[in-house]
């Protein structure tokens, strides 16, 4: 037996043991993450789950390898804050509509049912797709009339944070016909312990984050030291909003779904209608930290905070991380 072969025979069992240990460790990590996800809104999420920000993940069924989603647009009485009920238009009975999250390369189909009292059409904002699936009424397709449905089908090529919305006119969008459209890249997704979205609305529902006005906006949970991803989406339909986070700075890592070559650190980010940004924040101190529009009439009244305000409830780290000096 050559010395080379002897060496291989000694090394292989060692490698096998190492591999088993690594697999066991990976199993422990995965199960602890899953365990936390049920109690603490930490990734990963399943269809129908509350994503911890007042939105829910859209369910779908797989038919012949295609992910099939159903979206029903209909009028809805929607309470934006306690006692403040507005006449909304909604996909599947919620404002915003369900979060559509698919993987890069998926073929997706959307059956859109129009139960509104008026015509509509649905646009897939930021998607590279065939022109006749772009959802622009009168240009790429006929208007979907009340009682009718329209089926869209395309391949998810454009990765990152995007959104979908009615392209009929701004009023439909302002009444709530929009939602987050998230295409998870095969490689290089933004790494984070938590994944929130804040869709900014400023139409007939008033100033709303994810369809709600403070104090009805969902409180957002985080822990010191975690990487917290926030997807900011300007759904408009009319205004721009300087979104400000208390408690230090965040990093802007992507715009309109595209990763920035150099992430930029700031504490206030101007979000225009149609724009999306992915920001990452690592809280350094426990407490209640605001994220809000810094135009005061969008975030406050004479009776206190209202509109575009959400609160991060930051808890101590799950493991003993060093805290910043100075308390
Ligand atoms: Cu604003």
Automatic annotation (TrEMBL):
One Pfam family cited in the UniProt record for this chain: Cu-oxidase_2
Record keyword Oxidoreductase present: yes
Domain of life: Bacteria
Domain Plastocyanin-like per the UniProt entry, residue ranges: 81-185, 207-306
InterPro entries per the UniProt record, alphabetical: Cu-oxidase-like_N (IPR011707), Cu-oxidase_C (IPR011706), Cu-oxidase_fam (IPR045087), Cupredoxin (IPR008972)
The entry's keywords: Copper, Metal-binding, Oxidoreductase
Name the record gives this protein: Multicopper oxidase family protein
């Amino acid at each position: 037996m050559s010395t080379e072969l002897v060496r291989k025979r000694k090394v292989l069992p060692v490698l096998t043991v190492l591999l088993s240990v690594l697999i066991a460790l990976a199993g422990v990590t995965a199960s602890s993450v899953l365990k936390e996800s049920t109690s603490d809104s930490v990734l990963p999420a399943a269809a129908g789950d509350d994503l911890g920000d007042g939105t829910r993940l859209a369910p779908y069924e797989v038919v012949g390898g295609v992910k099939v989603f159903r979206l029903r647009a209909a009028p809805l009485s929607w309470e934006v804050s306690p006692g403040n009920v507005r006449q909304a238009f909604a996909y599947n009975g919620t404002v915003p509509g369900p979060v559509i999250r698919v993987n890069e390369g998926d073929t997706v189909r959307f059956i859109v049912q129009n139960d509104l009292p008026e015509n509509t059409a649905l646009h897939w904002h930021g998607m590279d797709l065939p022109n006749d699936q772009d959802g622009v009424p009168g240009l790429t397709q006929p208007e979907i009339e009340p009682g009718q449905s329209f089926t869209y089908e395309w391949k998810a090529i454009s990765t990152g944070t995007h959104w979908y919305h009615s392209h009929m006119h701004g009023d439909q969008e302002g009444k709530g016909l929009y939602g987050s459209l998230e295409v998870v890249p095969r490689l290089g997704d933004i790494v984070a312990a938590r994944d929130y979205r804040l869709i900014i609305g400023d139409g007939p529902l008033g100033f709303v984050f994810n369809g709600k006005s403070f104090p009805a906006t969902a409180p957002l949970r985080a822990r010191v030291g975690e990487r917290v991803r926030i997807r900011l989406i300007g759904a408009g339909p009319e205004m721009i909003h300087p979104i400000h986070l208390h408690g230090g700075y965040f990093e802007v890592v992507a715009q309109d779904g595209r990763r920035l070559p150099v992430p930029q650190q700031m504490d206030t980010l101007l979000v225009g209608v149609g724009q999306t940004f992915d920001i990452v924040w690592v809280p350094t101190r426990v407490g209640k930290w605001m994220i809000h529009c810094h135009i005061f009439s969008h975030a406050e009244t004479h009776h206190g905070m209202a509109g575009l305000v959400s609160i991060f409830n930051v808890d101590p780290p799950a493991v003993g991380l060093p805290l910043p000096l100075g308390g």
